[in-house]
């Protein structure tokens, strides 16, 4: 009898489109709906009341405008869809986002002749494997006005729904580039006149590399901050 009750309570599996993934959370789903960076299949919502009800209505309007079918399901089915993550009553089935190649990042107005005269700020991430850490870095980078994020392709976390949620949806509007050879990329940018900087906890950690205080640093050329 107990086993039968458990089977009856188990949420029915929802078939997904081949190659799709499940975004979860209000910010990631709303921003994914507002952009044209993913193919979108279905929006899943939990019936809500109060202040959350207005948010859900806005999501329905966004989905309708994009021609995305809306399905109202219960909380257990939403939990199953995103494997117990904090979904805030919203899940979105969509194609994954991929890293862009550095070739796509190089634009004419960022050439070596002009770059040294511009106040650009790039963030280089080396082997950031934790999706929560990557999401937090993307969220901060977007908020603080970083122009571009480049990550090492090897031993780095892909752009997963967990990263999008941790980034508060910034991943949905912020291009992330990758390279197989981050060291060569940094050397090339340094030769173009960029300042490549990292952080150390104390001067002796620099290993014969010039170390200055944050208060003494002068941003007078394009900068790449390396984290990882």
TrEMBL record:
One annotated GO molecular function: rRNA (guanine) methyltransferase activity
Chain coiled-coil ranges: none
GO cellular component, one term: mitochondrion
Main location: mitochondrion
Keyword Nucleotide-binding among UniProt keywords: no
SMART domains registered for this protein in UniProt: SpoU_sub_bind
Domain RNA 2-O ribose methyltransferase substrate binding: residue ranges: 22-100
Compartments where located: Mitochondrion
Key words of the record: Methyltransferase, Mitochondrion, rRNA processing, S-adenosyl-L-methionine, Transferase, Transit peptide
Family note: Belongs to the class IV-like SAM-binding methyltransferase superfamily. RNA methyltransferase TrmH family.
Protein name, per record: rRNA methyltransferase 1, mitochondrial
Native source species: Todus mexicanus (Puerto Rican tody)
């Amino acid at each position: 009898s107990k086993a039968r009750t458990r089977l009856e309570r188990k949420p029915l599996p929802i078939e997904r489109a081949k190659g799709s993934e499940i975004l979860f959370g209000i910010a990631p789903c709303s921003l994914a709906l507002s952009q044209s960076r993913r193919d979108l299949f279905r929006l899943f919502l939990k019936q809500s009341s109060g202040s959350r009800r207005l948010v859900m209505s806005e999501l329905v309007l966004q989905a309708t405008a994009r021609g995305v079918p809306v399905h109202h399901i219960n909380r257990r089915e939403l939990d199953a869809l995103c494997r117990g993550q904090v979904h805030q009553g919203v899940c979105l089935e969509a194609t994954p986002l991929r890293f862009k190649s550095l070739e796509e990042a190089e634009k004419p107005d960022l050439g070596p002749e002009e770059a040294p005269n511009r106040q650009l700020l790039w963030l280089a991430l080396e082997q950031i494997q934790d999706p929560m850490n990557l999401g937090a870095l993307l969220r901060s980078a977007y908020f603080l006005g970083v122009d571009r994020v480049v990550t090492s392709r090897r031993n780095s976390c892909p752009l997963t729904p967990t990263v999008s949620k941790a980034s508060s949806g910034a991943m949905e509007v912020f291009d992330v580039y990758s390279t197989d050879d981050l060291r060569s990329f940094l050397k090339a940018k340094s030769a173009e006149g960029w300042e490549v900087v990292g952080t150390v906890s104390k001067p002796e950690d620099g290993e014969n590399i010039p170390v200055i205080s944050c208060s003494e640093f002068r941003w007078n050329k394009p900068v790449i901050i390396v984290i990882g």
